[in-house]
């Protein structure tokens, strides 16, 4: 019995169908990779924001009342020589160790925004911590980079009257409202060429009200 071979049309049809299957498979794979990338981006944004808020919350909850040390306010809000916003205070939120290995329940803590070297419209957030020394308030310490893509960060302060203020100049606050906008990981990849209008930046915003728990006066040893 004579076997019949494939015609050219059948071979071309089979080839075409195979290419269609491969194309559809690659399209599905590419779509899955894009979705996974978006999920990773969202996760990284949340992780970055959560880390920053956790650091700040822990520190702010432990602000110590420094009025017994002849300090008008327990929070120092200033602008450094480069024009960057800086917030300093003493906190019981974390322990620190000095050069001699002595552990202290109090820390000097500071948060500073500095302009990014990659884009002067973007800020880099640093946290400062130092072993607390009575006669050297708000000087020295180790700086830690928290996030490289900050669009904005603001603090509002409330006293016993519950009124929110952008500046705090007297006594110890009762609550702090933190508002921070962070560039997404995708935006960070394009940080040198962000849209001219900052409203078009891809950012994630966080707002949190933090109760200050440790308002007792600091008692020098």
Description:
The protein is an alpha+beta fold. The protein has one domain. Helix content is 27%, strand content 32%. The chain has 2 helices and 10 strands, in the order H-E-E-E-E-E-E-E-E-E-H-E. Strands 1, 2, 5, 6, 7, 8, 9 and 10 form an 8-stranded antiparallel beta sheet that branches. Strand 5 and strand 6 form a beta hairpin. It is elongated. About 5% of the residues have low confidence.
Observed structural traits:
221 residues; alpha+beta; eight-stranded antiparallel β-sheet; two-stranded antiparallel sheet; 27% helix; 32% strand
Estimated share of beta-strand residues: 25-35%
- Mass-distribution shape: elongated
- How many structural units, i.e. domains? 1
Structural class, from helix and strand content?
A: alpha+beta
Residues in helix, %: 25-40%
From the alpha carbons, calculate the radius of gyration and give it in angstroms.
Answer: 27 Å
Number of strands: 10
Helix tally equals 2
Compute the average pLDDT.
78
* N to C succession of SSEs: HEEEEEEEEEHE
**Main sheet, how many strands, which sense, barrel?**
8 strands, antiparallel
Q: List segments where confidence is low: pLDDT < 50 over at least 5 consecutive residues.
A: 35-46
Terminal CA distance: 107 Å
């Amino acid at each position: 019995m004579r076997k019949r071979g494939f015609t050219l049309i059948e071979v071309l049809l089979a080839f075409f169908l195979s290419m269609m299957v491969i194309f559809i498979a690659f399209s599905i794979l590419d779509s899955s990779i894009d979705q996974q990338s978006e999920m990773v981006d969202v996760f990284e944004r949340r992780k970055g924001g959560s880390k920053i808020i956790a650091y700040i919350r822990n520190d702010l909850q432990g602000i110590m009342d420094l009025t017994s040390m002849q300090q008008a306010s327990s929070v120092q809000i200033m602008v450094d020589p480069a024009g960057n916003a800086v917030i300093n205070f003493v906190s019981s939120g974390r322990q620190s160790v000095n050069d001699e290995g002595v552990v202290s329940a109090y820390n000097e803590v500071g948060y500073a925004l500095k302009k990014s070297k990659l884009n002067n419209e973007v800020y880099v957030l640093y946290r400062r911590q130092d072993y607390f020394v009575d006669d050297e308030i708000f000087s020295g310490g180790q700086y830690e980079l928290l996030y490289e893509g900050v669009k904005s960060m603001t603090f509002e302060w409330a006293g016993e009257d519950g009124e929110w203020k952008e500046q705090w100049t007297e006594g110890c606050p009762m609550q702090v409202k933190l508002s921070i906008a962070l560039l997404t990981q995708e935006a960070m990849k394009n940080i040198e060429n962000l849209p001219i209008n900052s409203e078009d930046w891809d950012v994630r915003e966080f707002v949190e009200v933090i109760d200050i728990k440790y308002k007792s006066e600091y008692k020098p040893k």
